[in-house]
Write a structure and sequence with these properties.
Length: about 250
């Protein structure tokens, strides 16, 4: 959240600097502040408007222009052109009117009175534009530009430093049991088929089954039997009942 807020603040500051200073200088425009409500609701008081010089033959009805109503008076007005007429000498004249006014302006404008056509407007920024007008504007530009540059450098260094920090190990979820270690396989031992039967080594035990002691004569000899060792305390003793048939009882 801190990083997002910092970058948002930086972008807002860069945007304000661009619309107030950079774009007007690059386009040769002039920034003004709307002081009255004659152009409401589109351009209420406090709106920043940037006006670009435009030749009179490129102006048309519906354009918003900034003009000087009286010769020798530096104050300007921003209204909308509602029609274009020509006088007896064929000179172009502009009839203007404020959007919130009921009547047209009393003076028909000539091209020399027009300062320019509206390029863009930004609500509320006109207040800031009024505060940093004149010589203070140049000072503000250097201060803001330097501050933004230092802030951007600090953000860049901080991001590099955060990347170099070792990341902590990921913690398991609360209450989760650790995983069980893998179980080793059960040991097995290859036991020779001719092992001792009944605790002793008897003759011919090579041909007897290790598990039950049955005679395996005539069959292929078993090399090994992959069965676990029987417990030493209770040796396996072959039983004659296992190898002898059960007599038929009538």
């Amino acid at each position: 959240m801190k990083t997002i807020a910092s970058w948002t603040l930086l972008l807002v500051a860069v945007g304000v600097l661009a619309v107030l200073v950079v774009v007007p200088r690059l386009t040769g425009s002039t920034a003004y502040t709307v002081l009255t409500g004659s152009m409401q609701p589109t351009y209420p008081p406090g709106t920043l408007i940037v006006v670009k010089p435009t030749p009179g033959d490129q102006l048309k009805a519906g354009d918003v222009i900034t003009f000087q109503p009286e010769s020798g008076n530096p104050s300007v007005t921003t209204h909308r052109i509602i029609s274009i007429v020509y006088d007896a000498s064929g000179k172009r004249r502009f009839i203007t009117k404020g959007d919130a006014n009921n009547a047209t302006d009393p003076v028909q404008l000539v091209e020399e009175q027009v300062r320019g056509r509206l390029l863009y407007s930004v609500p509320y920024l006109g207040r800031i534009n009024s505060l940093i007008s004149g010589s203070s504007r140049s000072i503000a530009v250097f201060v803001i530009a330097g501050g933004l540059g230092a802030y951007a450098l600090w953000m860049w260094i901080s991001s590099i430093r955060d990347r170099k920090k070792p990341k902590p190990p990921e913690n398991p979820e609360p209450g989760a049991a650790p995983p069980d270690p893998p179980m080793p396989p059960a040991p097995t031992q290859a036991v020779p088929a001719h092992a001792e039967v009944g605790g002793r080594h008897s003759a011919g035990s090579e041909n007897r089954c290790y598990a039950c002691g049955a005679d395996q004569s005539g069959r292929p000899p078993l090399a090994y039997s992959a069965v676990p060792d029987p417990p030493s305390a209770t040796p396996v003793i072959p039983s004659a009942e296992i190898t002898q048939p059960i007599p038929f009882i009538k």
